[in-house]
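Q: Got a minute? One more chain.
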Amino acid sequence: MLEQPQAHAFSSDSKFDADQQSLLDRAVDFGYELFQGQMDYPESTPGEYWSIRVENCHKAFGSNRVMNGLNLSIPEGMITVVLGPSGTGKSVLIKHLIGLMFPDSGDVKVHGESVPKMRMSELLEMRKRFGILFQDGALFGSMNVYDNVCFPLRQNTNLSEREIAEIVNHRLDEVGLSAAHNKAPSELSGGMRKRAGFARALVLEPEIVMFDEPDSGLDPVRTALLCQLIQKVHAQNGGTYIVITHDIASARRIGEYLAVLWKGRIVQSGDREAMFTSGNPFVRQFLAGAEEGPLGME
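A: Always. Here it is, folded:
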């Protein structure tokens, strides 16, 4: 069993009442078994086990503290789901992982390399390791599906149009959009736009694929189908997948490793079975969707 992570309380200037702070402090006092996201898991080389490590990160916008000593490890080669209620800093976390924002203090490491310490040229190269599916697909309205998916290849490689076509047609087939390559984004359903965005995220063969609320705007059936597609493509291609969501059903369906984010900190992380049987009051309430517990409407 790995060494237990230390429990860290919020500093005295946190904007919580005494009962909330006491609950939060106790929430990290639970003992966790193997595979729980400890930062000190031994690696012979950086990035061998953890694709990404967020180490004691703090981030504030004026008086709004979004990260409060956030620690998170993303295991290599798995589908990790980062869950949290709305307004807990999930979008800010994404921007830190790809170097669009930097922490006020702390560090973010991708395969052992510190993102805040990178020069701009290094940042641009690092971002090529990522494929990102944004909430609405983020397709260019002036381009058809084919040209949208081609875009990263035309911008970042010297491949011929024949070579690009081979890659793009393969990815469109992979997500079930072969027949839609000439369609404009406005002609696509919400689910189709997300699949087109997924295909585009894959064309540079990224080591890490990140999904920002992929279930947003989809009905339960289409959400289930998208989750099934994510699992299928991951099984075929491998790599590290990070799904940012608040949808419990999606987390249960595809998450191999889960982390629960609340008030700018990871309350608990671990494999799916450990998380859904957690004794942590925050995790138990959130994953069960229960009314009773430390989470409220604030």
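A: The chain has a mean pLDDT of 81.
Q: Perfect, thanks.
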